[in-house]
Amino acid sequence: SYRSANKEQRTSAPRLISLKEVATILGVSPRTVDRLIATEALPRPLKVGRRSSRMPIEDLEAYVERLKTER
């Protein structure tokens, strides 16, 4: 049915977080997040508007896991 198909789409869509939230999770400033993106340490965020970007939470989790293995 339409409702069950729509529910599946909502649960499978990636959770997007703001770059400010990324900074809070990492414990760094938003400017540091910009630098990490510029140096390609963090993946490029997705544009969701002319002046708005969001990062899939999975990309941030992968970055944190990569940091853990590099220790």
Overview of the molecule:
- It is a single chain.
- This protein is of the alpha+beta class and 71 residues long.
- It is 58% helix and 13% strand.
- The protein has four helices and three strands; from the N terminus they run αβααββα.
- It has helices at 2-12, 19-26, 30-38, 57-69, and strands at residues 16-18, 46-47, 53-56.
- A three-stranded antiparallel beta sheet has the order 1-3-2.
- A hairpin with a 5-residue loop joins strand 2 (46-47) and strand 3 (53-56).
- Helix 2 packs across helix 3.
- The chain starts with a helix and ends with a helix.
What is the gist of this entry?
The chain is α+β, with helices and mostly antiparallel strands and 71 residues long. The chain has helices at 2-12, 19-26, 30-38, 57-69, and strands at 16-18, 46-47, 53-56. It has a 3-stranded antiparallel sheet.
List how many beta strands DSSP finds. Answer: 3
Helix content: 55-70%
Mean pLDDT: 88
Shape: globular
Question: What proportion of the residues form beta strands (DSSP E)?
Answer: 5-15%
* CA distance, first residue to last residue: 49 Å
Order of strands across the widest beta sheet?
1-3-2
> How many helices?
4
Report the radius of gyration as a whole number of Å: 15 Å
Structural class, please?
Answer: alpha+beta
Order of helices and strands: HEHHEEH
Biggest sheet architecture: 3 strands, antiparallel
Low-confidence region ranges = none
